[in-house]
Amino acid sequence: MSMRKPRKDGRAFPPLDPVAANGLLDRRALLGRGIVIAGAVTTGASTALTSAAAEPLTNGPWSLAPGVPIPPYGQPSKFEQKVVRTLSNPKLEPRGSAARTPHHLLNGTITPNGLHFVIARGGETEIDPDKHRLVIHGLVKQPMVYTLDALHRYPMASRISFVECGGNSAPLYSKEPIQANVQALHGLCSCAEWTGVMLTTLLDEVGVDPKAKWFIAEGADLPTMNRSIPLAKAIDDAMIALYQNGERLNPANGYPMRLLLPGYEGNMNVKWLRRIKLIESPVMAINETKQYTILRPDGKAWQFFFPQEVKSFITHPSPGLSMKGPGFYEISGISFSGNGRISKVEVSADGGKSWAQAALSGAGSEQSLHSLPHSVELGWWHRDLAKPCDGRGRQRAAEPRGIHRRARPAQGYAERGGVHDGAL
């Protein structure tokens, strides 16, 4: 269906021709047309818009009296109390804890520190920064111990990077499609600007033995989380992160320091970092043998897969969000890849039969989240899909029903990537 709307100068706007089936429109076609178009196709909305424009504004009580004192540290409005993480273990029972990011209630690509996802096997670890130490030893020429104050004397670097848990989107392995919101399905990934000391700076200081090919990263939490990591990643872009979105790391995200491995599986970004030991080969820790492996059909396990695969999911509209009625709505969501930048995202409104390229926004750096706004004219029901492609040509295609699934391995977690659909 094409629509023409007269402009103020009397000339007609170009027709609103769909770019794909089922009413999918290019969002650029709406620029300059204003909200009147949305009102014109929404039942009863045009009259409300006209009368609202003619009536004077009324003063609310907030306009008639002084406000409240400014707090030392700002908090979200009391009207945003529902924008919180969901907790899997609020009473800290003897098991792991998870806190999921409410992506469907956020916009943009940077996750606020208080809403960043958390996986903690021993709860939130509180560390006295003055007593914490980082040791670098093993196959080095000069072992070193660093205090937090000492690290602040080295050159700092910043980069925007997502972190995704290896178990994110695990509900999609269900035999039947899961009826859940984005937070429950994809809430174990977040994105922040991280600032700290590049690991290569410290390795240059201690001197790397040529025999070293791997290193162990170990945390100071109760389970002493540890992983074997290729030394090549340390030389590439690994960081000892001290700041998160401009302020010191959140306690649940590794305060006072954590390892950041851009694009790599979340558990490898060891929090509460206290040890880096250079070694010749991996130590086959529990988190790289029994867990975080894929059991293949032949009975062998696939180990040491590191980058998170290209992936996307739609956040608006999505399950749990109310829509006031038919009209124009913007489809937006998130895409990312541990292998590089997202080069394009295609969106479908007819279950994958036809596709249109979405506009990308966001930081634009490698291993960061990208938002994918698009517009669609909705009736009462649609299924929307997003299909991402990263800078190295990796792409995830939708299955006919729009849910990307793989068989759940017998133990551990499998590599994830794919698309998520939403029925409205």
Walk me through what this model shows.
This protein is mainly beta. It has two domains: 177 residues, Immunoglobulin-like (Sandwich); 155 residues, Sulfite Oxidase, Chain A, domain 2. The protein is 9% helix and 27% strand. Strands 1, 17, 18, 21, 22 and 23 form a six-stranded antiparallel beta sheet that branches. Strands 6-5-14-9-10 form a five-stranded mixed beta sheet. Strands 7, 8, 11, 12 and 13 form a five-stranded antiparallel beta sheet that branches.
Low-confidence stretches: 1-7, 34-50, 374-383, 397-417
Highest-level CATH class of the largest domain: Mainly Beta
Question: Portion of residues in helices?
Answer: under 10%
CATH architecture of the largest domain: Sandwich
Helix tally equals: 6
Average pLDDT: 81
> How much of the polypeptide forms β-strand, as a percent range?
25-35%
Q: In this structure, how is the largest beta sheet organized?
A: 6 strands, antiparallel
- Derived from helix and strand composition plus strand pairing, the structural class reads mainly beta
List how many beta strands DSSP finds.
25
> What form results from the Cα inertia axes?
globular
Q: Tell me the Rg in angstroms.
A: 24 Å
Number of domains: 2
Distance between the termini: 21 Å
CATH topology of the largest domain: Immunoglobulin-like
